[in-house]
Design a protein that fits this description.
By secondary structure, the chain is α/β, with parallel strands linked by helices. 48% of the residues lie in helices and 15% in strands. It has one domain: Aldolase class I (TIM Barrel), CATH 3.20.20.70. It is globular and about 45 Å long.
Length: 249
């Protein structure tokens, strides 16, 4: 049987700082530093408070996933990626639907910028299909493919363009692993408690144990921790589920 350390399990957990309050974000960083592997800063928080939140997370010795889902002309996204490197993020994402050239130029810009600064390159992820979308949503905007088919198509383009991995639903992990192997990073949002029925805008969800068991590299968790009566204990429980999933893998 595998011996999964608590540190390894913690490293797989990304906590979503989904707030527009700098003070509230700092309280979560204070509470959860050392109990999660990374903090996710999305559009809501970054728009409200700017890069100072990245600096605050780094001052606690923690890692940052900048979740802004860049999607624009290649030059614009590449320049935004360089800015992300300069503020020291450890991971960030672009939309795979921006196309191969956009991803290629972004990956190249990140490598050159990081080398110039003498620092490690952040992980560059491509967002495939949002976990809030299902087949009906895709049909509404003109896609003829199912969510699973579109995820694999976008992931193939992202992989060929040099992305480190993808953001994808847990329901797509098995197919992604079959096509791209173990080195292609999969970050999975939409994680819910094992006994919880989704009551929000996420449609394609899974619990932490199952997601890690079938091959997720990282999971993103927000509400199950944030809305818990005891957030720190909820965090610890998810870490235990991650360890169990890795053991059963």
């Amino acid at each position: 049987m595998k011996n999964i350390s608590n540190k390894t399990a913690i490293s797989k957990l990304i906590f979503a700082l989904d707030t527009d309050s700098y003070k509230e974000a700092l309280s979560w960083i204070e509470l959860l530093s050392g109990h999660v592997g990374m903090f996710k800063v999305g559009k809501e928080l970054f728009t409200a408070v700017g890069p100072k939140i990245i600096e605050s997370i780094k001052q606690k010795g923690q890692k940052v996933f900048l979740d802004l889902k860049f999607h624009d002309i290649p030059n614009t996204v590449a320049r935004a990626a360089e800015a992300a490197v300069r503020i020291g993020v450890d991971m960030f994402n672009v939309h795979a639907s921006g196309g191969s050239r956009m991803i290629q130029e972004t990956v190249s810009a990140v490598r050159v910028c990081a080398d110039k600064l003498g620092q490690d390159k952040p992980i560059v992820l491509a967002v495939t299909v949002l976990t809030s979308l299902d087949n009906a949503d895709l049909a509404e905007v003109g896609y003829e493919k199912s969510t699973n088919e579109l995820v694999l198509l976008l992931a193939k383009a992202a992989h060929a363009a040099g992305a480190s991995g993808v953001v994808a639903s847990a329901q797509d992990i098995a197919a992604l692993r079959a096509d791209f192997g173990d080195k292609f990073i999969i970050v999975t949002p939409g994680i819910r408690n094992a006994d919880e029925t989704a009551k929000d805008d996420q449609k394609r969800t899974m619990n932490a144990f199952e997601a890690l068991k079938i091959g997720a590299d990282y999971i993103v968790v927000g509400r199950p921790i944030r809305e818990a009566k005891d957030p720190l204990e909820a965090c610890r429980q998810i870490v235990r589920e991650i360890a169990a999933g890795l053991t059963a893998k």
